Amino acid sequence: MDLTYVSIVVLSSLIFVVSGIIGYLYWQQTRLLQQLQTLALVVATKLTEQQQVEEQEPESEEEDDDRVEVVEGPTEAVQSAVLPVHEPSVSPTPTATSASEDDVDDIQHKTVKELHELLTKKGIPYGKRDAKTVLLQLLRATA
Fold this sequence. Notes:
By secondary structure, the protein is mainly α. Helices cover 70% and strands 0% of the residues. The protein is built from 6 helices and no strands.
C-alpha cells in the first residue's frame, strides 16, 4: 500500500506543476497579445497619418501648376479676357492640442476616465479594460 500512496502523491504533484506551467504560459501569451495589439494600433495610426499627408501633397502640387496665359492681340481682347485667380485652398490640418494635453507630467496625474476622453478626442482606439499604464503608453506613442 505504501507504493500506491507514493505514486498518487508523485502524480498529483506532477499534475500541479504542469497546471502551474500552463497557467504561466497562458498569462505570458495574454500579455504578449496585448502588447502586439497596442503596437498594431500605433503603427496603423502612423500609417493613416502618413497617407493623409501624402494625399494632401499632390493636391498642393496640382494647384501650383495653374498658370495665367498671356493673350497677345488687341487691347480690347486682353481687357475682356477673364484671367483665373488662384486662391489657396485651406487643407484640413489636425487641430493643435493644448500644451497641457501633450505634457507628460500632466497626463500622469489624470484619471483613467480622463485618459479615455483624450484617446477618444484624438481618435485612438483603446480597450475599455486597459490599465492606466497602457493608456499612457498609447498617448506617449502618438504624441
